[in-house]
Amino acid sequence: MIKKDIKTLGELKQSGYISRSIKDELRENLIRKIQQKEPVFIGIVGFEDTVIPEIERAILSRHNINLLGLRGQAKTRIARQMTEFLDEYMPIIEGSELNDDPLAPISNYGKTMIATHGDNTPIAWLHRSERYVEKLATPDVSISDLIGDVDPIKAANLKLSYADERVIHYAIIPRSNRCIFVINELPDLQARIQVSLFNILQEGDIQIRGFKLRLILDIQFIFTANPEDYTNRGSIVTPLKDRIGSQILTHYPKSIDISKQITQQEARINPEQQKRVQVGELAAILIERLAFEARESEFVDSKSGVSARLTISAYENLVSTAERRALMNGEAKTEARISDLIGIVPAVNGKIELVYEGEQEGSGVVALNLLSKAIRNQFVTMFPDPAKLKKKKEVSPYQSIIEWFSEGNEVDILGSASFDTYKKSLKQVTGLEALVDSYMPKLKPETKLTMMEFVLFGLSEHSLIGKHSLERGFTFKDLFGSMFSGGDDGNDEDM
User: Fold this and answer.
1) C-alpha gyration radius of the chain
2) How confident is the model at residue 391, as a pLDDT?
3) 77 Cβ neighbours under 8 A, 6+ residues apart
4) Pairing mode, if any, of strands 148-150 and 168-170?
5) Reported confidence tier of residue 314, pLDDT bands at 50, 70, 90
6) pLDDT by residue (tens digit) across 219-265?
7) What 3-state DSSP class applies to 78?
8) DSSP 8-state assignment for residue 441
């Protein structure tokens, strides 16, 4: 192990340091991690058997990588975590803007320093966190931004000829020598700018203006791209794709459990909120199911994708909705309710791209529609499917609840209701608590109330009772009474 306290080139040589390319460095450290059974990527959930093995194979093959996937699929996070495969510290010639390897300098500055000072050339050390460089591709990015250009001010100040290599101002790619360099949203880069990357990827060198300059750069390139960008904003030119060793497809979570794990890992809930608000399993699942429904919805543009950020933001909003209610009622603790899910609509609105039909409906209506579908589809996984009961002509376990409403009874579930009011409203519905007890006998008191509320929402979504939206909550009533009074009848147009 090289000691970070080495200060000169002579000391570095005596230590036995051997130069190696960044791709070899990544490869060797990955091999060590795999052999020692160390975790390779931390916090990347759902890619264990798909994306991560492909990334490992690309690194072992010393490939540059293109991560291709829809938004919110952890592409940038994966790229940033690859710094963990680098050595903790890397030696450079002190003051070098190109991170010159002391044993193999490439810049005029590095070569001059060694020619002048020999083994006394001062050495600095870069931590691996400093060896990650990221650039967002935009249409206005120029070759000068990426590679460099002649600097007339430098030429004038140093009284140098324009034929002197020292007048060159190196841009972000040369300055990323011996580093991981990431270009996000590659298709946004103009085709002529993409062409400037050809030599860097294949031969490892660059050209600036008319200089006879050949800098053999040592860079691990990682590109990210969204398939939708190929038609909306640009494309990756074919020769450039040909020079990228591995193109790896990312994907959204394949199950609700994995999606829920990601959401709870990423949601920013402070300790005070965690202490005050309990989010039950059911509410958490409904948020994830909403995202799955959105990815299948006819109103949502499937090519654009539905980011994992939707569920993360929705979860944070759900907690805040419950927290606000608890604060209003002076309650020290509360559990998120089904009616609190109305508070996640703003988080959904900005996270989905709508097709024409969706735009006609409006983002708020589409969000409520998705929530309704999530409740309806989740309901039949936990309680008997009303449609199947009717088809088989079996006795409905919901009969006593439906009859209570058909007698003209109503129940209000207000978003700001205190726990006592909430409990009283649900307890008055004949057969509701007994139904929940029969299918889920071991629930905690607050969780049972949430489940009772869920039954009301579920029955309304299956058109067995009516639901009418209020400014501050919902009223549940007889289905026909709801229809005649102008309330919704549990269809997809409202939660």
Assistant:
1) 30
2) 86
3) 43, 44
4) antiparallel
5) very high
6) 999 999 988 655 445 688 889 989 999 999 999 999 999 999 999 99
7) helix
8) T
The three-state secondary structure class of 86 is coil
Contacts for 196 with CB less than 8 Å, ≥ 6 apart? 143, 146, 147
Work out the burial of residue 68: count CB atoms within 10 Å of its CB; fewer than 13 is exposed, 13-18 middle, 19 or more buried. buried
| Domain boundaries along the sequence of the chain | 9-249, 256-485
Residue holding tokens 């549940």?
476
Specify the pLDDT at position 2: 60
Rounded-to-10 torsion of CA 383, 387, 391, 397 = 40
The upper half-sphere exposure of residue 208, i.e. CA atoms within 13 Å in the direction of its Cβ, equals 23
Question: Strand ranges (DSSP E) for 354-435?
Answer: 411-414
How many whole angstroms separate alpha carbon 129 and alpha carbon 472? 50
- C-alpha–C-alpha distance, residues 241 and 201, integer Å: 10
**Tokens describing residue 440:** 């889920």
Residue found by looking up tokens 């006819």 in the block: 298
Give backbone dihedrals phi and psi of 3, rounded to 5 degrees, phi first. -85, 135
Give the phi and the psi of residue 245 in degrees, each rounded to 5: -60, -50
DSSP state of 188: G
The more confident residue out of 86 and 156 is 86
Q: Which CATH class is domain 9-249?
A: alpha beta
Strands ordered across the beta sheet of 473-477: 411-414, 473-477, 466-470
